[in-house]
């Protein structure tokens, strides 16, 4: 079991063909310039028969998807800066939506891509993002099959926003859901937390750290599919994004009406992340990841779950605690110094536009 | 056959419950405030079991959709102003995506909704838009089943952008596509053109006309389903949006590699629209609609197609011309004064952010 690595997608920039080095309002007009942008940029990068069918929507080859097994999700991406160590808005827009499908237990199949471009955006920047999306889609084994482009005036956007919606296929008869979480379940985190948020913050604020800090952004679907293929007794999966590990645990404790007790000592946090958080006065448990998830599993399945996640080399998974009948919605943490504290949902906004 | 009219959806504004009269960055944080926004605003307005299942994605009841019959599409909406005579960004975001599915011959079933909110947006404005989306979804008979909310800093957006992606079901074994258009086909336009664009322009520029000018924005799916239920020999449908009637005809003439000849005299244009266009130096054939479509149909089907469209009371349909083998990609128009001119794809941008 090794991580799927697709051939990297490389393509020279079509800008010499594009006549315009920057995005103009007319690129969103429905006319010739929009047609040119779509054909020379999007069709070329995403290149697949469904997309090239070129109609208002696309009929999907969902032959083989059993009735009632289609999963649907959407996310918009407004991260800044557009490029950061370990990724960019394009790869994030693919992985984020792919991961949402995977967390439902679905095999991601198709994505849409809606671009909101700010007038004046460099075509080369757009091309880099679009190529990154294609590369990310290849890695996650999904296709970008339909899309849309809008242009807003300078000062009414921030370079580029992307929405992706995704369609996945439920292959296994599982019901992964917060409400399936039960007392006795073990809580597994798939790797160290907080790296994405801190990598973006460092880039944004121009901070440099002793060692390189790269985002953990990654597609989780191959790992999740392997877990499900193995038929393990898993009750819920949730990717750790906005609000960090703490928000995920609080939300699930509420939905499932259970108590969750975790042990701070067990939570894997990279030293550079810890240091950066200390410097900025942040708690890493509230900082977003983009390639980590929490799994709620029956005790008997813990060992195998840890083994499979480890084999994907996307982080070192650890069991950090367990679910009890205790008080519905409560999340407690045994601290490193031996005390106990309550973990709350974050209420303010410490790290805006992290995804 | 009458137009479907759903019970209007009314709900009092939950602002007293929301603590904050305006959108803050924290409403996009993944924390408590975002949770509150989702539960008190989106869950309340869109209210359906799929949405309320509250996971990263939603498993759809697509039982009964035959394998290989799922249609997928997306559009972002950046129109300004947010409210205009005959609609708003919310109803547009529903009808626009519903219409894209309908143009493929699909019965629209499910929508996603991705919101990009600008910090400082009035909660009441958001609520009006969200209620309008629900009302539009009821009218189109689709459900908004999954969503996402992001917040960007003041000055990095323009109040509110919405992306909707849509999933539809191919019920009929038809292949409506530009490449299915054949010489001999008649070109039918479903009603008067240019009303949406001019209504929005008038609102934006503070122009007032002698008579009220309202957008034609409307869901076209019920009309299209009735056309397909009747088993008529229809080859292609296309809604008239950005770029207007001219752009649609040029695009289809190119895709199908046919010539299209139309008769200006036959093209229905509302008098107020004509007057406003003249005033602003615009050609109504390049102005967007949001509730009109072009149908390419076999001559034998023309009469029944006109009859069915008429019965929906969404405009008076007219046959405006025909397809010939002539020159691939060419669109010619017999002018009112008896000459002939070529219709080109629009190249610049006359009416930005019309959808």
TrEMBL record, chains A, B:
Domain of life according to the entry: Bacteria
Q: Which CDD domains match?
A: HypE
Could you tell me which residue ranges the PurM-like N-terminal domain spans? 67-170
**SUPFAM superfamilies according to UniProt:** PurM C-terminal domain-like, PurM N-terminal domain-like
- In what residue span(s) does the PurM-like C-terminal domain sit? 182-329
InterPro entries in UniProt: HypE (IPR011854), PurM-like_C_dom (IPR010918), PurM-like_C_sf (IPR036676), PurM-like_N (IPR016188), PurM-like_N_sf (IPR036921)
Q: Which Gene3D superfamilies match?
A: PurM-like C-terminal domain, PurM-like, N-terminal domain
Q: Name one GO biological process term.
A: protein maturation
Report the PANTHER family cross-referenced here: CARBAMOYL DEHYDRATASE HYPE, HYDROGENASE ISOENZYMES FORMATION PROTEIN HYPE
The record's similarity note reads:
Belongs to the HypE family.
Q: Which NCBIfam families match?
A: hypE (TIGR02124)
Q: What is this protein called?
A: Carbamoyl phosphate phosphatase, hydrogenase 3 maturation protein
Organism field: Nitrosomonas mobilis
């Amino acid at each position: 079991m090794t991580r799927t690595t697709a051939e990297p997608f490389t393509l020279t920039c079509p800008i010499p063909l594009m006549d315009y080095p920057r995005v103009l309002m007319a690129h969103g007009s429905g006319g010739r310039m929009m047609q040119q942008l779509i054909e020379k940029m999007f069709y070329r990068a995403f290149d697949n028969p469904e997309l090239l069918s070129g109609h208002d929507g696309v009929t999907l080859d969902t032959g083989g998807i059993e009735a009632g097994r289609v999963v649907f999700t959407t996310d918009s991406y407004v991260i800044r800066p557009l490029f950061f160590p370990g990724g960019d808005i394009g790869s994030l827009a693919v992985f984020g939506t792919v991961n949402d499908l995977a967390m439902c237990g679905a095999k991601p199949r198709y994505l849409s891509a809606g671009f909101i471009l700010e007038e004046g955006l460099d075509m080369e920047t757009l091309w880099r993002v679009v190529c990154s999306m294609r590369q990310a889609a290849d890695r996650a084994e999904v296709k970008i099959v339909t899309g849309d482009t809008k242009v807003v005036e300078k000062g009414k956007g921030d370079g580029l926003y992307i929405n992706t919606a995704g369609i996945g296929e439920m292959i296994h008869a599982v019901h992964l859901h917060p409400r399936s979480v039960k007392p006795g379940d073990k809580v597994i985190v798939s790797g160290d937390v907080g790296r994405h948020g801190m990598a973006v913050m460092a880039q944004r604020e121009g901070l440099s750290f002793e060692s390189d800090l790269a985002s953990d952004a990654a597609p989780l679907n191959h790992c999740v599919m392997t877990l499900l293929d193995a038929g393990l007794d898993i009750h819920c999966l949730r990717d750790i994004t906005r609000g960090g590990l703490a928000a995920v645990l609080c939300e699930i404790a509420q939905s499932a009406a259970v108590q969750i007790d975790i042990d701070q000592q067990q939570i894997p946090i990279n030293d550079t992340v810890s240091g950066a958080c200390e410097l900025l006065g942040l708690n890493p448990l509230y900082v977003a990841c983009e390639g980590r998830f929490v799994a709620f599993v029956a005790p008997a399945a813990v060992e195998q779950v840890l083994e499979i996640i480890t084999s994907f080399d996307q982080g070192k998974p650890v069991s950090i605690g367990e679910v009890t009948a205790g008080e519905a919605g409560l999340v407690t943490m045994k601290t490193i110094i031996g005390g106990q504290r309550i973990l709350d949902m974050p209420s303010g906004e410490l790290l805006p536009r992290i995804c």
